[in-house]
Amino acid sequence: MACCGKNALNSTPLAEYARSLTNEMSRDAVQWHFPMYTVPLSTLLEMTQVEPHEVLMERGWLVKFHRSKGKAAFVSHQWAAADHPDPDFKQLRVLQEALKHAMEKLVAIPVDAISEVADSKAKLLHTFELQSEPLFIWYDYFSCPQSEDKGPEAGRGKLLDAIDSIPAYVDECSFFFALVPVVEDLSRSKLITPFTWQERGWCRLERICRELSTNESWVIVKSSTELELVASATASILNGSGPVGEGIFTVLEDRLKLAPVLLSAIKRKMQRLLKSQDLAGYRALLNRQTAMLRGFQCDPLGGFVPDTEDSSSTPVKHFCHQNGFRSIHEKDRYGWQALHYAALKGDPYLVQDLLALQADPNCGTKRGHEALGLEIGSTPLTICCLFQHTDAARVLISAKSAVRGGGTVYHPLGCAALTNNAESIQILCDAGCSPRDQNTFGFSAMAFAGNVGALASMKELLQQTGHVPALDPTRALQFAMYGCGGSAEVVQWLVDLKADVNDQNFATAFQGTRSFRAIYTLKVLQHKFHKVTSATKRLYHVEGATALMMALLTSQYEGAAALIAAGARLDLRNARGWKAADFMRGRSVPDLVATTRS
């Protein structure tokens, strides 16, 4: 059933509205509510302690940044204490050494393995870009006021102004560094790791602001010598680990401050997408808001197109009008229909209405969606599972949506596993999925869950499987260390299930199907004779490798320490003749594993 006529999508009210914005202005003005204070790189490299904004201001070390001065880098990091980000100067020392290492010894910062596989066009970050112009560093403790006048005349406060300006600061920065070395917190009671960074609400906000900026790529700084560029939507989503509103906050009231900040960043991105005529990207962000704002008590932004009496007469007509569809069966440049975007929005009533109008619950997309990291052939159910819309998924399943299809790589169960969505795993298995189901390349949902350390997914898959041997905890442990899921918690849980920390048969996981055997062979030959990348390095060394070797190769030092504590042997060699110590040679390794060198 059509919402209107059958004209092309470029003649819809949405397309006309986008063209009107294009003529309005060529570029958004960066709006700072508080100046963007930075420190020059040379000043940062000379520091021996982390001191607050007020001290640096008094010394004259801070510079009000403007693009005419050079380039800026935004540093996202987890605080080591409630009242100080880095009292022992451990994290900032890693940043100092990593920047020196990158500019003095690297030609380029390599693309991370997920980006490399997900996007063949992903580009390295050549380090000359860090040096082509003067570089200035934005770091919250330096750049934002740390003491506020609490008197009755204080007004709104400079700190809140700086917080509201975070999207603009991120947008103005040419580079974004996630500073995530494994270090102890001030109390020495726990570790600060990439996983704890991913859990923090403030860090999630900064990362999502980068995704919503004009330059979406960002650099993970794992140690003084280990830097990787996250350069694809798939990798960014998997490394981001959840909505801002569901993140951890030391001060609970901070959560209330961030919803309007995130909404302002979303609105600005949506306007840019419209002005650039990227209507598919606009649709993706318009409907993804539901997932992005989860955990906040606020409504997503509505569509920007003025409604008419006819377009607002039913929810389906309103949805089609705001998304630029003349018919529920029309497709945009990615081959996405209205039902795909409704699944992304996660509104079960809208999904039900579209199905009642004969929308196809099993329609696969015709292209991968760049803004969402989704591949060709993704079904509405796959989309629901990836973005954790379980109510909408139930509606689709009741309409006979196929639970065992929906993509070459990411089938519904695999997407639920990747996003730690235990509830969706349960309803999919109730509908006929098996925890043993594999994708086209022979990988199971447990492989996906292990790869990203999705512990809730692994526990639910174990419950659905019914017995530990079918789960294969050893293989799950190896996938965690091969990917980015090597937390100490994951290691301990799998070891308790009798995972063999010294198993050396992981390479068989890449021999499951003819198609992936071909990819495996190609990548190994590429590493040996052509060029070394993050993905080729892993596949080259995987034959005969233990979980510990893979953890060290992928710089997952928290997991490596947990494996050593669980009895991982240091004398074993992989098929290339390498021992665990060989994977640490020439690299900056945290103290908790450095003592194992031999």
From TrEMBL:
Gene3D superfamilies: Ankyrin repeat-containing domain
Annotated ANK repeat ranges: 334-366, 543-575
Bilayer-spanning residue ranges: none
Keyword Repeat set for record: yes
Superkingdom of this protein's organism: Eukaryota
Keywords: ANK repeat, Repeat
One Pfam family hit: Ank_2
UniProt name for this protein: Uncharacterized protein
Naturally occurring in which organism (per UniProt): Durusdinium trenchii
